[in-house]
Amino acid sequence: MNSTTPIIAPSLLASDFSNMGDSIRKIQEAKADWVHFDIMDGNFVPPITFGHKMVKDLRPLSKQFYDVHLMVNQPEKHIDDFIDAGADNITIHYESTTHVHRLITSIKKSGKNAGITLVPSTPASQLKELLPFVDLVLVMSVNPGYGGQVLIENTLEKVSYFKEIREKMGYNYKIEIDGGINKNTFDAARKAGVDVFVMGSAFFDEKNPDDLVKWCKNR
Ligand code: DX5
Ligand code: ZN
After folding, report:
1. 45 CA from centroid of ligand 1 (Å)
2. How far is it, in rounded angstroms, from Cα 38 to Cα 114?
3. Looking at the domain assignment, is residue 1 inside a domain?
4. Which residue in 1, 28, 85, 132 could disulfide with 55, CB within 3.0 to 4.6 Å?
5. pTM tops 0.90
């Protein structure tokens, strides 16, 4: 398995929206590492979740790494708002805009981390030209838009692909996985080469999320 300790990133998508402050505290008490914000515009994906104000209002509550996943069309229109709101990483979908390289570069110029992600039907090779510039590659292991789905097995091959390229070319992006990650799928994802594990329902449906985080960190 990987040498580094797994990074656990609970997704607020699966939390109680009527009490987001509590959700942040839950993530802190469980000693998870990142907070994953699933931003959905009702366009790129059918549901609408929340916008940059959620990041801004929750920023003072935690020092954890705020990991923003933009499932929105024309992300270029929203980047500055999320930078100002206090995001630490902003991940955009390859399929959501034409000038991806330009957008990744402008996120980096702001001093924030820049991530790229792809839906399950987009081949991993499509990201080749972007890999030298990104800090994070997010492999969607479900079709974006909904929590609580089942992991799509062959997306793990993309994880191995990005791991091999990183080693061969000396890139230093982290590999993150998002969708259907729980105690049954964690080991396969880790073996494929995942560094950062997004968990929505597995974390927030769990009675003792701190035990889950401990379990993951000891795998
Ligand atoms: C899909 C979302 C979900 C969520 C994780 O657009 O990105 O993948 O974060 O949901 P679970 O962990 O419940 O599959
Ligand atoms: Zn996500």
Report:
1. 12
2. 15
3. no
4. 85
5. yes
